[in-house]
Write a structure and sequence with these properties.
It comes from Micromonospora mirobrigensis. The chain has 326 residues and is an alpha/beta fold. It folds into 2 domains: 2-238, P-loop containing nucleotide triphosphate hydrolases (Rossmann fold); 243-304, 2-Layer Sandwich (Alpha-Beta Plaits), CATH 3.30.70. The protein has helices at residues 55-62, 84-88, 107-117, 122-136, 151-163, 181-197, 209-215, 233-239, 284-291, 307-316, and strands at 2-18, 24-40, 44-48, 70-75, 91-95, 169-173, 201-205, 218-223, 226-232, 244-250, 265-269, 274-279, 297-303. The protein has a 6-stranded mixed beta sheet with strand order 5-6-7-3-8-9, with helices on both faces. A 4-stranded antiparallel beta sheet has the order 11-12-10-13, covered by helices on one side. A hairpin with a 4-residue loop joins strand 11 (265-269) and strand 12. It starts with a strand and ends in a 10-residue tail after the last helix. The structure holds adenosine-5'-triphosphate (ATP). Residues 13, 15, 29, 31, 49, 51-57 line the site of adenosine-5'-triphosphate.
C-alpha cells in the first residue's frame, strides 16, 4: 500500500530579479517540475540531488508547509495542506535546521510537553521514550536545557521528539549534517533499527551518501526538479557503468605498465609504484597474472565502486527534457 503518492507534482516560485539599476522584474523558478512517485509502507527512501534540485521543496509539500502549484500529493491518504492538523499526528519531521524542542526547557520537559500536544497515552509515550533513551543514549543529557546541548545531542533529541507520537512516516532533511562520527553513527544505527522494525516509512534527504548506503534500499535522485533515477543503489552502479578497482602496490615502478585485456589502467600513483586497474570484463586473477613476473607485488586490494563517483557523474549528466505537458 502506498503511504506517499505524488502525481505530476510541481512547485513554482515567483522571484523578483534586478533588471537594470532600479528596475526589478518577476521571474518564475520551477523548483519541482512534475514528480510522479509512490512510496510503500515501511520503505526507506533516499531522496537526493545536487544543491537546488528541489529536495526540500518536495519535503515541504509532503509535510504541508508549501502548497503545490500543480499536481496531486497524498501522504497517509491525506492532502498535506488542507489536512495538515490530521496529518501532523501521523508523520514525524526532522529538519536539520529547524527545532521542535523548547529552547529553554530540559529535553525531558520538551518530551513531556509533546506528549500533551499529541495526546499520547502515558504508557505508549513511556515505552517509546524508553526505546529512544536506550538506542540514542539520551540519559546523560535529558535534564539539560536544549540551548546547552551540542548539535549531536540535540539531533538525537529531535529524532526522539519526532517519534514519540508513533508516526507512520518520518521525513528527515539532512539528519546527520554537522555531526561528529560517533553521533552520526548513533543516528544511523537508530534509523537502521527503525527501518528493520518495518512499520515506519522513512524519507531521507542528505548530501552524505554514506547515510543512503547504510539505510536506503531505494534511491531517488532528482535534478532541476525532475526524477533522474529511481531504483536501488546497485541499479545505479549498473546503469552508470561503475567498476570495481584493483590496486596493485609494487616494490618498484615498471618501465611500462602491463595492459591486461578487460582491465584498463586507470591510475598510476606513488611514482609508478601503485597501479590502479578497473575491472571491466577481466577478473582480479587476470590483473595479478599480467603483473606477475614483471614486478614484485607488495599488496593487492580491491575497491568496491563508490557511490560518490557514480552520483557525481549523474549530477553532471545533462538533465532530460521536460515531458510534454509536464
Ligand atoms: N521560497 C523560495 N522562493 C524562491 N525560490 C525558492 C524558494 N525555495 C526554494 N527556491 C528555489 O527552488 C529551487 C529548489 O530549492 P530547494 O531548497 O528545494 O533545493 P534542495 O534540493 O533542497 O537544495 P539544497 O541541497 O541546497 O538544500 C532552488 O532554485 C531554490 O533557489
Amino acid at each position: 500500500m502506498s503511504v506517499i503518492e505524488m502525481a505530476g507534482l510541481r512547485k513554482e516560485f515567483t522571484v523578483r530579479v534586478k533588471a537594470g539599476r532600479l528596475r526589478r522584474t518577476k521571474r518564475t523558478v520551477t523548483a519541482v517540475d512534475g514528480i510522479d512517485l509512490r512510496v510503500q509502507r515501511g520503505e526507506m527512501l533516499g531522496y537526493i540531488g545536487p544543491n537546488g534540485a528541489g529536495k526540500s521543496t518536495t519535503l515541504k509539500m509532503l509535510t504541508g508547509v508549501l502548497t503545490p502549484s500543480a499536481g496531486e500529493v497524498r501522504v497517509c491518504g491525506l492532502r498535506p495542506v488542507p489536512d495538515r492538523t490530521r496529518l501532523a499526528l501521523r508523520i514525524g519531521v526532522v529538519f536539520g535546521q529547524r527545532s521542535q524542542l523548547w529552547w529553554d526547557l530540559p529535553l525531558r520537559d520538551s518530551f513531556d510537553l509533546l506528549r500533551h500536544v499529541y495526546r499520547v497515552p502515558a504508557a505508549e509515550h513511556a515505552a517509546r521514550l524508553r526505546r529512544c533513551r536506550d538506542l540514542l543514549d539520551l540519559d546523560g543529557f535529558l535534564d539539560v536545557p536544549v540551548r546547552q546541548l551540542s548539535l549531536g545531542q540535540r539531533m538525537r533529541g529531535e529524532l526522539t521528539a519526532a517519534l514519540l507520537h508513533g508516526p507512520e512516516v518520518l521525513f528527515l532533511d539532512e539528519p546527520t549534517i554537522g555531526l561528529d562520527v560517533v553521533s552520526r553513527q548513533a543516528v544511523r544505527d537508530f534509523l537502521a533499527e527503525l527501518g528493520r522494525a518495518g512499520d515506519t516509512t522513512l524519507v531521507l534527504t542528505t548530501h552524505d551518501l554514506a547515510d543512503i548506503e547504510r539505510l536506503c534500499h531505494r534511491l531517488v535522485v532528482i535534478d532541476h526538479g525532475r526524477v533522474v533515477h529511481d531504483g536501488t543503489i546497485a541499479e545505479l552502479h549498473r546503469r552508470y557503468g561503475s567498476r570495481r578497482l584493483v590496486v596493485a602496490e609494487l616494490d618498484a615502478a615498471l618501465a611500462e605498465a602491463p595492459a591486461p585485456p578487460g582491465a584498463p589502467l586507470v591510475g598510476v600513483e606513488a611514482d609508478g609504484r601503485r597501479l590502479v586497474y578497473a575491472l571491466e570484463s577481466a577478473g582480479v586473477a587476470e590483473v595479478v597474472s599480467a603483473l606477475a613476473g614483471l614486478a614484485a607485488l607488495r599488496d593487492i586490494s580491491i575497491e568496491e565502486p563508490r557511490i560518490e563517483d557514480v552520483v557525481t557523474r549523474l549530477y553532471r549528466a545533462p538533465v532530460p527534457e521536460a515531458r510534454a505537458g509536464g
